[in-house]
Amino acid sequence: MGEVILGLTISLDGFAEDPDWYVDYEYQVPIFVFTDKAPEKHPKESDKVTITFVTSGVADAILQAKAAAGEKDVNIIGSALTTPLCLKTGLVDELQVDIVPWFLRTGFRPFENLDNNDVKLERIHLIGLPAGRTHISYKII
Question: Is 11 within 8 Å of 74 (Cβ atoms)?
Answer without folding.
Answer: no
